[in-house]
Design brief:
Length: about 400
C-alpha cells in the first residue's frame, strides 16, 4: 500500500489536471441536487407550518349535508353534541367563502364568538392582542395580508362593503391586518364577529355553517363518531387527522413529482458518466498502465478513483444543498414556491420557516452517490485488471 503523503499529492494533481472535466460534472450535479433539495425544503417547511397550525384546531368539525351538498347547520345540534360523553369545547362557527364578483376572487370569512373562550381558542394565535372594546365599537374585521392588498388595489382602504343575499350592502371597517408570518393560513382570511358573519351570509339566528368540538381521549374518537351519526342522518363529520393527511398527501405528491424527475435526470447523468468512463481515453488508459507498471496495485488504483469521485460527490452535494437552503429560506424560493401555492386564491407572500429533513437529504445523497461511484469505478476496474503493457498501447 502506498504511503498517504505521495498518494494525496498525486490525487491533488489529478484533480487539478482534469479540473475542466470535473467542473462540468460538478455543475450538472449541483444544479440537480439544488433543485430537488429546494423542492424538499419547501415541502417540509409548508407541511411543518400547516401541521403545527392544525394541531391547534378542533378535533372534529360537524356540518349538515342535504342531497349531497352542504347546507346550514342547526344551532340546536350544539346541545345534542354536548350531551355526548367525552366531548368538550363545543363551539358554533360561521365559515365560508365570500366571492367578490368584479375581481373573480374570494375571501375566507370566519365568524367567531370573541366572548366564547371555546369558540375563539382555535384562533388565539390570530386574534392575540386585539382590543375587544375598540374592536366592537363598530362593525369591524381582521384581515390577512392578501385580503388587505387586494382591497387596496380595488380602492377599499379602510372599509369594505359586503353584499348580502338580500341585495343590501354591509360596510365593515378593517380593524387590523394579520402578521405576514401567518400568511400560509390566513392570507385570504377575514375574521369577524359571528353575528356579523351570519348577516353577510344570510343565515338565521338559529343557523351556523358548522360546529367544532374536541375529544381529549383519542381512544374515544371512533365511539364519538358513531354517536354523532345518531344525532341526525344528514350529519357529516370531518376529523382533524383527515385534514392533516390530506395536506401531507398534497405536498408529498408535489414533491414526489420533482423527485421522480430528479431520478430520471440522475439516471441519465449516470449513463453518460458510465459511457464516458467505459470508453476510457488513451491517455487515461496509459495513466493507469503506468501506475500499474511502477508498482501500484489494482486496489491502489481503485482507491485513487474512489477518493477522486468522493471529493466530487461530497463537494457537489454540499454546494447544492447550501445553494438550495439559501434560495429557499433566505430568498424565499421565488418562482418555485408558486408550484406549491399556484392554486392560492390571492397572491401570497409566504415566510418559509427553516425545516430540514436530514433523513431525506441522506437518502438523496445515497441515491446520487452510489450510481456515481458505480459509473466511475466499474470502468476503471476493467482497465486496471488488464496487463500494464496492453493498457499503455
Amino acid at each position: 500500500m502506498l504511503s498517504s503523503s505521495p498518494f494525496l499529492h498525486f490525487l491533488t494533481l489529478l484533480l487539478f489536471k482534469q479540473k475542466r472535466k470535473h467542473l462540468g460534472i460538478m455543475l450538472i450535479s449541483v444544479v440537480m441536487i439544488a433543485l430537488v433539495s429546494a423542492v424538499l425544503f419547501i415541502s417540509s417547511s409548508l407541511q411543518k407550518t400547516l401541521l403545527d397550525t392544525l394541531e391547534e384546531q378542533a378535533d372534529f368539525t360537524v356540518t349538515r349535508i342535504e342531497a349531497g351538498r352542504p347546507v346550514s347547520t342547526p344551532l340546536a345540534w350544539v346541545d345534542k353534541i354536548m350531551e355526548i360523553e367525552g366531548v368538550s369545547e363545543v363551539a358554533p362557527r360561521i365559515h365560508g367563502r365570500y366571492f367578490y364578483a368584479p375581481g373573480e376572487e374570494s375571501f375566507l370569512v370566519v365568524g367567531i364568538d370573541f366572548f366564547d373562550e371555546q369558540g375563539a381558542k382555535a384562533l388565539q394565535s390570530l386574534i392575540k392582542g386585539i382590543d375587544l372594546k375598540h374592536f366592537f365599537a363598530g362593525e369591524s374585521m381582521i384581515v390577512g395580508e392578501g385580503v388587505k392588498d387586494f382591497l387596496q388595489k380595488h380602492y377599499y382602504h379602510d372599509t369594505f362593503s359586503f353584499k348580502t343575499p338580500r341585495g343590501e350592502f354591509k360596510q365593515v371597517k378593517i380593524h387590523k391586518v394579520l402578521p405576514g408570518s401567518l400568511n400560509l393560513l390566513a392570507n385570504d382570511m377575514i375574521i369577524m364577529p359571528i353575528d356579523l358573519a351570519r348577516e353577510i351570509f344570510g343565515l338565521r339566528e338559529d343557523e351556523v355553517t358548522d360546529i367544532t368540538f374536541n375529544v381529549p381521549n383519542d381512544a374515544e374518537w371512533d365511539n364519538v363518531i358513531g354517536k354523532l351519526h345518531l344525532v341526525d342522518y344528514e350529519i357529516r363529520v370531518v376529523e382533524k387527522r383527515e385534514v392533516q393527511k390530506a395536506y401531507e398527501n398534497l405536498y408529498n405528491y408535489k414533491g414526489g413529482i420533482f423527485l421522480v424527475l430528479y431520478i430520471i435526470a440522475l439516471l441519465t447523468l449516470m449513463l453518460i458518466l458510465y459511457q464516458r468512463y467505459a470508453m476510457v481515453y488513451s491517455h487515461e488508459r496509459k495513466e493507469i498502465g503506468i501506475l500499474r507498471a511502477v508498482g501500484w496495485s489494482i486496489r491502489d488504483i481503485l482507491k485513487l478513483k474512489f477518493d477522486e469521485t468522493l471529493s466530487l460527490v461530497i463537494s457537489s452535494f454540499l454546494i447544492g444543498t447550501v445553494v438550495a437552503y439559501g434560495y429557499v429560506f433566505v430568498l424565499g424560493a421565488p418562482v418555485l414556491i408558486e408550484i406549491f401555492l399556484g392554486g392560492a386564491n390571492l397572491k401570497n407572500q409566504v415566510q418559509l420557516i427553516p425545516e430540514v429533513s436530514f433523513g431525506i437529504l441522506g437518502s438523496i445523497f445515497l441515491l446520487y452517490a452510489v450510481p456515481f461511484f458505480a459509473a466511475v469505478l466499474i470502468p476503471s476496474w476493467r482497465v486496471a485488471v488488464i496487463p500494464p503493457k496492453e493498457a499503455m498501447r
